[in-house]
Specification:
alpha+beta; SH3 type barrels; 2 domains; 6-stranded antiparallel sheet; 4-stranded antiparallel sheet; 9 helices; 27% helix
């Protein structure tokens, strides 16, 4: 009996720790999904996401009827990652060789507004949230004194949020515990630009915006924020930013703002813009602009074509003051 038990134990120890089923072919992602190093622990070094429309070499399934597939993600460390089977489609050829991936499908024509670019007038935002770290020491020569600052870039439709985000991170984002969210793997240069253009990084706003909205953008955090900063640059070098900078301490109207958008980015651009205001004592101050965009963002020069094909929106508040830097 003891010999039988010993033999069984040796046999169990000789079995592989995992039961992957080898597969050949390729896996084409249809969604942006996390690519895990470990399924059970859901570890994802580098926060790697699959890119919709891209084909990946297929290595194995986690079981004979897999819930996850082991694929090769070039450039990731490590390269072999697990993705959920419903993240895409898989194909093999009859000889079991890796088949050539099909040509990428043409990008679908998007009808309506694909993204909302949300920008703050930071001095006014700080009047409403004076205890925020980024609002404690505003100076007249700060970037935010005369430029729009980045709030976020929000994939539409509304509710397209928290894509493949673990429950714990979603809870931290929704409860305002943004510093509990993972740090983003941004390059030093982009992080510098973001710290200037998004003062809310002092409150970990960039982590919240990525968790809630950026995870649905379909790229890495680096690419997501590079696109958002390109759109902000286009806005801050336009007649719209000049209108605000030239009227600090004075009231402007929605009509003036929309006319400035038309002048800078083409007729009808202003109809894609909404202005938000807040009461502040006996004043009404402009706190935010939200701008509809549709299409592929590849640089600041795209702004005019992107806003042109977005859907018109209601204008929001009719007028408000351009608040000067510093708390009142």
């Amino acid at each position: 009996m003891r010999r039988l038990l010993a033999s069984a134990l040796l046999l169990m120890l000789a079995l592989p720790a995992r039961a992957e089923v080898p597969l050949t072919g390729y896996f084409t992602a249809t969604s942006a999904c996390p690519a895990y190093q470990s399924i059970n622990r859901q570890t994802n070094p580098g926060q790697v996401m699959t890119q919709p429309g891209r084909a990946y070499d297929l290595v194995a399934g986690n079981t004979a009827r897999p819930t996850h597939l082991w694929i090769v993600v070039p450039g990731a460390e490590p390269e072999r990652r697990w993705v959920a089977v419903d993240c895409g489609t898989r194909a093999t050829d009859a000889e079991g060789q890796i088949a050539a991936p099909p040509p990428p499908a043409p990008a679908p024509t998007y009808r309506g507004t694909q993204y909302i670019l949300a920008v703050n007038w930071q001095p006014a935002f700080c009047e409403t949230s004076p205890r925020k770290p980024e609002c404690r020491d505003q100076q007249a020569d700060d970037f935010e004194a005369t430029n729009f600052t980045l709030h976020g870039l929000w994939p539409q439709p509304r509710g397209n949020e928290y894509c493949n985000v673990p429950a714990r991170e979603r809870q931290a984002s929704q409860s305002g515990d943004w510093r509990d969210l993972p740090r983003l793997p941004l390059s030093p240069g982009l992080q510098r630009d973001l710290d200037e253009a998004m003062p809310g990084t002092q409150s970990a706003l960039e982590r919240h915006e990525w968790t809630k909205h950026g995870t649905c953008y379909g790229t890495t955090a680096e690419q997501y924020y590079a696109a958002a900063l390109d759109m902000l640059l286009a806005l801050n070098t336009s007649e719209v930013a000049e209108l605000f900078a030239d009227n600090i301490g004075r009231k402007i109207t929605l009509r003036q703002v929309r006319d400035a958008f038309d002048s800078a980015f083409g007729r009808g651009a202003g109809e894609r813009v909404r202005m938000a205001c807040e009461p502040d004592g006996n004043r009404t101050i402009i706190t935010e602009l939200t701008i509809g965009l549709t299409g592929t963002i590849s640089g600041p020069d795209d702004f005019a074509s992107l806003i042109a094909v977005a859907s018109p929106t209601d204008g929001g508040c009719k007028s408000g003051m351009v608040d000067p830097v510093g708390l009142r």
